[in-house]
Design a protein that fits this description.
Elements (H helix, E strand, L loop, with lengths): L2 H21 L8 H8 L17 E4 L2 E4 L24 H36 L16 E6 L7 H9 L6 E7 L6 H11 L4 E6 L8 H12 L4 E5 L6 H8 L4 E5 L2 E3 L5 H23 L9 E5 H5 L13 H11 L3 E4 L4 E3 L6 H18 L1 H7 L5 H16 L3 H24 L7 H23 L4 E4 L2 E5 L5 E4 L10
Parallel strand pairs: 3-4, 3-6, 4-5, 7-10, 8-11
Antiparallel strand pairs: 1-2, 6-9, 7-9, 12-13, 13-14
């Protein structure tokens, strides 16, 4: 059932085992740098391609050992059962395997370094740059703002009121709640009285037949949206003009915001800000600068006509990750997806480290079912700690660089790089000290490894709100009975 995820996990485990075994092996015949010289016929290596080299090989207890003068003596125990993995393959085969693993490490490290550089440099040219409003000065497009609501939190009134007070000439606000007992209803009526000139409608109850709870909530509002531009806004922001201007450009069907957080006090809030401004942004920003399809559904504005050509928003409600499939469908149709110059500011009124970890596990499980090979291998191997260990081993074997020094330098450089990127996205002073940042950043990197292994436990089941969902490869979702004993609690 979990074949892709298990294969990816198995590949990670095998790679780790080989790396650890290679570190503990004193026999230099497994040194990849020497094997390269042998294959290139460098004098003194004792290996000539196309020539019988068997005279230079001794057989010790059935194990082929090269007798070059620069190889240390290697004693093989007489008990063949203790030889383990190395007794199955000869030296040359192991050299090719280790060489291949080393090349993968170097490629992954080069890719990650490239993306970090793109984010650091490119972000300074695109973030917080205002669009030319002359593009829409003659004919300002109307915007339908869909605001899904569920319950009350300490910052909800500030969040919702920011939508009522938006300084945009033509918009409607469509608020959505799941049932008529939701306490957010009274807040909506209160703000409607305070801002009587705002075109605001309240939709109670979702639309049957839709699995995704958020799409289920928003479906009635989407069906009644009267403007061409639709903005699904789950957080407070006031950058509609920037997004509307970008949608005016040729062939642009969707404009999205990079997730970020407002300044809130607390350890968990610092963790959230450090993650979204560092580890998340280092790739999200680079992918969008390079024109790759990488969007989240936290806050995005799109052309309703373009999405209606693809069956509309409600059709994507069969997926939990509707934003992933929606944006990819638009991209494959030939439409452009662009990122706003302004990050989406989340108001995190109630946050805890456990809640952060659970959300990361839920998101990773979604990605494991949407992109099993990418999220099962490439994603964890581009995190700071796994990639640093992997690259330290590779640079040691190819170039003889001390792996401990390499990892320490790598770790410090990534810590500094993420801090610079965080300050860039913050666009102002950070609400915590450098010491607090360092502690939280290290915790985040350790949690990333823990989250990966937790996500592999029952990767097909996700607990979201009051419901449990079962996923299948491709992202198709089935709603399970919330009282099932087998449900996964995150």
């Amino acid at each position: 059932m979990y074949i892709h995820s298990l294969l990816s996990a198995a590949a990670c485990i095998i790679c780790s085992a080989v790396l650890l075994f290679s570190f503990s092996m004193p026999f230099r015949g497994f040194d990849c740098s020497r094997r390269i010289f042998q294959l290139l016929n460098v004098p003194g290596t004792g290996f000539t391609p196309g020539v019988n080299n068997n005279d230079n090989i001794n057989i010790i207890d059935g194990i082929r050992i090269r007798a070059d003068r620069d190889i240390q003596e290697y004693s093989v125990p007489s008990n063949h059962g203790t030889m383990g993995l190395y007794s199955l393959l000869d030296e040359q085969t192991w050299s090719y395997i280790v060489f291949f693993l080393g090349v993968i490490a170097l490629v992954l490290y080069a890719m990650s370094t490239f993306f970090i550089i793109v984010s650091q440099i490119g972000g300074r040219f695109i973030l917080f740059k205002k669009e030319d409003t002359a593009l829409i000065s003659d004919n300002v497009p109307g915007v339908s703002i869909i605001k899904p609501l569920m319950g009350i939190d300490p910052l909800l009134e500030i969040n919702l009121e920011s939508h009522f007070s938006i300084s945009y000439p033509k918009f409607e606000l469509l608020c959505c709640v799941q049932d008529d007992h939701d306490p957010a209803i009274n807040l909506v009526y209160k703000l409607k009285e305070k801002y009587p000139k705002v075109d605001c409608s309240l939709f109670i109850g979702g639309k049957d037949g839709i699995i995704n709870p958020m799409v289920h909530n928003m479906a009635p509002a989407y069906d009644h949206a009267k403007y061409e531009y639709v903005w699904i806004s789950t957080r407070s922001t006031d950058i509609m003009m920037d997004m509307a201007c970008k949608l005016q450009k040729p062939n642009v069907a969707l404009c999205h915001q990079m997730p970020f957080t407002t300044d809130q006090k607390g350890f968990a809030q610092t963790l959230e800000k450090t993650y979204f401004g560092g580890a998340f942004a280092r790739y999200y920003l680079a992918f969008n600068i390079l024109g790759l399809c990488c969007c989240t559904g936290m806050s995005y504005m799109f052309k309703k006509s373009a999405l209606d050509e693809l069956h509309g928003l409600n059709w994507f409600g069969k997926y939990l990750a509707e934003d992933f499939y929606l944006t990819h469908a638009l991209h494959e149709k030939g439409h452009r997806l662009v990122m706003s110059s302004y990050p989406a500011q989340q108001n995190l009124a109630q946050s805890a480290v456990v809640g952060y970890k659970n959300r990361m596990v839920r998101w990773l499980r979604l990605r494991l079912n949407m992109m099993p090979l990418v999220s099962g291998f490439l994603e964890p191997m581009t995190e700071c700690i796994p990639l640093g260990l992997y690259a330290a081993w590779a640079f040691y074997h190819f170039l003889g660089i001390n792996p401990y020094i390499f990892f320490a330098v790598h770790f410090c450089l990534w810590l500094i790089s993420d801090h610079l990127l965080l300050r860039l996205i913050q666009h102002g002073p950070l609400p915590f000290s450098k010491l607090q940042y360092t502690i939280v950043w290290i915790l985040r990197e350790v949690l990333a490894v823990w989250v990966f292994f937790v996500a592999l436990i029952s990767p097909r089941r996700i607990k979201w709100g009051k419901h449990t969902y079962k996923l299948s490869l491709g992202g198709h979702t089935e709603l399970l009975n919330t009282h099932d004993k087998g449900k996964v609690k995150l």
